[in-house]
Structure prediction request, 484 residues.
Amino acid sequence: MTNQSESMTGVDDSTTNTTEPFEAVIPFEPLNNTDLSKVRNYKPLPSELSPEMIAYDEHQLLREAYTKLKGGKLPERHRSLSIIPKFYSKPPSEGSCLAQKLREEARSRFLKEKSTQLLDNQEVQQILQLLEKRSKSCSQDSYSKIDLSEQLINYQEFVSVGKQSSAKCQQFFQPSVFAKLFNGDPYGRLSVASFFTYVMRKVWLHQTRIGLSIYDVQGQGYLRETDLENYIIELIPTLPQLECLEISFYSFYVCTAVRKFFFLLDPMRTGRIKIQDILASSFLDELLELRDEDLPKEVQFSNWFSATSALRVYGQYLALDRDHNGMLSIEELSHYAKGTLTHVFLKQLFQECLTYEGEMDYKAYLDFVLAMENRKETQALQYFFRILDLNKDGYLHLMNLNYFFKGIQLMLNECGHDHVKFEDVQNEIFDMVKPSHPWRITLQDLIRSGQGETVINILIDLDGFWMYENRENILADNQDTGYN
Prediction:
């Protein structure tokens, strides 16, 4: 019967195409007379005759018909998979120099094209002048002399200004933009100031996005630590407030600035940050705020990226490093701030963070400082929670709380204060947090309660615990002295 089948098809099994897309699921058994008759009379339906099927040879059609008659199933992969064009290519490997150069050139041209789509200063000035004509009370000399805060335009005037603007400005005169900025004016008017601020903000965001993308070596929409370091090191000469920094301090300044980005925007420690997340944060605003030559002293002190702040943090690090080896031990870090952090907490901190022969480097110290100075932030609570979660099971139970509070009790005894029972503190913590489980506190419980900072202070900082215990007296004293 096998010989008959071969003579009928004219195809020898030994010459079967090895790249055929369909394989019979069941073993190829000899055909009996009934099956052979059905195969000879089999005709595919018109809907089954796709262009790909026409290209099949007679042997492939025979195998498909045989599989259907025997109740077998065709592979689930659709035939169209063989003709769908490739739409994704992996980035070239480091060894592919030519492919990398080609990719870099393509990205460079793409970013250059995007740059040409941005509004230049002349086009922004044109929009401002057209808005001035509508307000009739603004000076045309410079942006700083123009007060548009009291000017309003309706939708007809909005459209009219758009028609008089250049082609690249049309994106800002869409109905959706007017609706987005409309603040409920009873006469349907839009604030000229809010519109112009919107235009300037969008232009700045696009410019900054292109500027950051230049440092995106991988071309994947995110920046690694080295990419962000390169961006900041080239930005330093353009910031007047950083002119006082010596070149020898640049590496420490860059490290200080980059750590804030990664601590607050990369809490999962992936080693990269999306460019969109950088733009959505306020960090670039703070960094570029240093362009102002007349920045007030109090603003410089509160701005993490200022020279004043960077020198303050680095100076504290040097002051703590008593043996001058460039690293901090547990005993040296215990003098941080007022020296009120418990030894229990510091010991666990050094077990959790990356250390070198049991000592902390400047980068790990920056993470610690950022957590201490931003205890209300979710990322800081994540930092502390990793330390407090001794068993790494995702929650804090009574054993965790008792273990860390013993450090507070020990410092209270050393200072001669009355003993505080853990049971009393335990009840207060659970009353504040109100966790979903009666005896467990998760990170989400701390974040949701809004009391995460207070709980952290009670467990790791004697000064924080004292302020909590005496909060009523402190509030009364502030009221008596006129402070809110």
